[in-house]
From TrEMBL:
Cellular compartments annotated: Cell outer membrane
The UniProt record lists the keyword DNA-binding: no
Superkingdom, taxonomy of origin: Bacteria
This protein's name: RagB/SusD family nutrient uptake outer membrane protein
GO cellular component: cell outer membrane
Domain SusD-like N-terminal: 23-239
Family: Belongs to the SusD family.
Alphabetized UniProt keyword annotations: Cell outer membrane, Membrane, Signal
Coiled-coil stretches: none
Organism: Muribaculum gordoncarteri
Pfam family, one: SusD_RagB
Domain RagB/SusD: 328-592
């Protein structure tokens, strides 16, 4: 076995060795003497923590900066496909990889354990005499305690991420004496902890450290993107919701659903006690036709709905890869991210009914009288896009003799008839705009409300669940579900659907499909063929628009990844990288054994 030595060094921003690990087990023997130089200095200690944030926080936009990822992780779900032919997402959709050669498995495993190691280095070496721990007014009160709590929460977030991707997980936390574990060549690798137990550990960590953090920072300009007490409440609520879900709770232990419901309600109650609480974003005039879209495009770092996010990103990447491919000039769109018809059909009618249950819905006039979030999330045929003189109807026509400007071109197009509007700023294409601000939430208030609704309903408290899902719907003026008088089973489907459309392209759907075990419910493409498109998970649909004479909408499978391959239980988790299984004797996930 070989071991790579990791050096700590300080540059303009301190870098730490975790990022250079080749794999989980390739660790240095111990921190070098350079650690004294780092942790004996306040600015360097603070820089180390700042670099931990860069490496620890999940990033739903990461694919937009990688030439082989390209786009949103929803391209591994029934929400979207990736037009880019060499994108790595396709291998997940086709189950066309193994434990020796998959980028995501190696990358997610390696990067998360490297980040955990850095957290443990900080927890071991950070010094109260250097940082200071005095009682102060404002955000820096008992600063050492706060920074230690931040590191614990970052470590918990990384373990949560590992559980989501890999299930049962070796937990590199504290030894029997409470000291953070920093693995060495002689270390015994922890056995994989059952996912349900690991998720409970995460919830307990949140309870331990949430009160050492301000619930919300007084100076968010200075502390934007920093873990706060609200993020600890939110992580606990999400961890316990996952723990209660069918994937990790096959016996449907009702106590777990109650625990998850109480965690979400704890957030809401704590938030209600704040002088500046988190709340659903609305425009100044509370316009339901704009509230949702502008939540993700207007001043994301001053958004009262965002509980935790990575730092804002000044870029045009999302515009390039999301906007319709026919918009071109000094800069050009490619439109690689294509929402599916499955997702489009999930948006209810304005009457508050699924489209297959509302006689007013017309498949040949499909975008009229729908949930306002549809036209704030999905760019469709006939929608006006562009600015000023460039504004025109989107054209994805594909009739004989005429292909619309936005259907396909040399460097992009749509495989489904749709493009993504979420996070996509409508800018001029003359090159006068160099960047826009985007930020993808890790936790936002709408998720907390939906977590509460789901857990309460599953815990048998259906009458209470309505209050929280209806708050999310009210922002866009959608009818209350309470008036429908739904039973637990029917409300379950509506809450799941609400979560799908409200949280799309935020890296939730991949895990929601799995924790609900939707693939076992549907079994295969043939078994689900009689279901409406929005309830199918194996077959992905799009629309072909024909308008040489009369405009018609023809629905069929997507031209890219039209069929998904999902083998159960194998594809509920990624494989542990083969090198780790071979060197450390870690038991591989079922179905991935070589």
């Amino acid at each position: 076995m070989k071991f790579n030595k990791i050096a700590l060094y300080v540059a303009a921003v301190l870098s730490f060795g975790g990022a250079s690990c080749s794999d989980y087990l390739d660790k240095e023997v111990d921190l070098t003497l350079q650690a004294d130089n780092v942790f004996s200095d306040f600015d360097r200690t603070r820089g180390f923590l700042a670099k931990m944030y860069d490496n620890c926080l999940p990033d739903a936009f990461r694919g937009y900066s990688d030439t082989q990822f390209r786009l949103s992780g929803d391209c591994m779900t029934d929400n979207a496909v990736d037009y880019w032919g060499v994108a790595r997402y396709h291998s997940v959709m086709a189950d066309a990889y193994d434990a020796t050669n998959h980028w995501f498995a190696n990358d997610y495993w390696t990067s998360r354990y490297a980040a955990i190691r850095s957290c443990n280095q900080f927890l071991t070496n950070a010094r109260p005499d250097v940082i200071g721990n005095a009682e102060k007014p404002g955000d820096d009160n008992r600063l050492y305690d706060r920074m230690i709590a931040e590191a614990h929460m970052l470590r918990a977030i990384m373990h949560f991420d590992l559980i989501c991707w890999f299930g049962d997980t070796p937990m590199v936390t504290d030894d029997e004496n409470g000291a953070p574990i920093i693995l060495t060549p002689s270390s015994v690798i922890p056995e994989r902890m059952p996912a349900a137990d690991a998720l409970k550990w995460i919830a307990d960590e949140c309870d331990k450290y949430k009160d050492a953090l301000p619930f919300r920072y007084a100076s968010e300009n200075e502390n934007w993107g920093r873990v706060n007490g609200a993020a600890a409440y939110a992580l606990k609520a999400r961890a316990l919701l996952y723990r209660a879900s069918p994937l990790h709770n096959p016996g449907n232990d009702q106590a777990r659903w109650t625990e998850a419901a109480n965690a979400a309600l704890d957030f809401i109650n704590a938030n209600n006690r704040q002088s500046n609480p988190y709340r659903l974003y609305t425009t100044p005039d509370n316009d339901p036709s704009k509230n949702y879209y502008q939540c993700f495009t207007t001043n994301p770092s001053h958004n009262n709905e965002y509980i935790l996010s990575r730092s804002t990103w000044n870029t045009l990447n999302l515009v390039f890869f999301n906007a319709p491919c026919g918009f071109t000039g000094a800069i050009s769109a490619t439109g690689y991210l294509n929402p599916t018809q499955n997702l489009v059909d999930a948006y209810e009618t304005a009457n508050g009914l699924p489209i297959d249950q509302d006689p007013s819905y017309d498949e040949q006039n499909p975008y009229v009288n729908r949930d306002p979030r549809l036209t704030q999330t999905i760019i469709h045929h006939g929608m006006i896009w562009g600015v000023g003189s460039e504004a025109r109807p989107v054209d994805v026509n594909n009739d004989e003799g005429r292909v619309g400007a936005d259907y396909a071109r040399g460097n992009g197009g749509t495989a489904t008839g749709y493009y993504s509007m979420k996070y996509t700023h409508n800018i001029p294409w003359d090159g006068t705009v160099n960047s826009v601000q985007v930020a993808c939430p890790i936790f936002r208030y709408a998720e907390i409300l939906l977590n509460a609704a789901e857990a309460l309903n599953e815990a048998g408290r259906t009458s209470e669940a309505y209050d929280y899902v209806d708050q999310v719907r009210a922002r866009v003026n959608m009818p209350s579900l309470r008036s429908r008088g739904l039973d637990q089973s029917a409300l379950r489907e509506r809450i799941r659907n609400e979560r799908r459309i409200e949280l799309c392209f935020e890296d939730h759907r991949f895990f929601d499909e799995r924790r609900w075990k939707l693939f076992d419910e549907n079994r295969n493409a043939a078994a689900e063929s009689s279901l409406p498109r929005y309830r199918q998970v194996f077959t992905l649909y799009g629309v072909e628009v024909r308008e040489n004479t009369n405009t018609t909408f023809n629905y069929g499978t997507s031209r890219v990844d039209g069929r998904r391959t999902f083998n159960s239980p194998k594809n509920y988790f990624f494989p542990i990288p083969y090198d780790e299984v071979r060197k450390a004797g870690i038991v591989q996930n079922p179905g991935w054994e070589l």
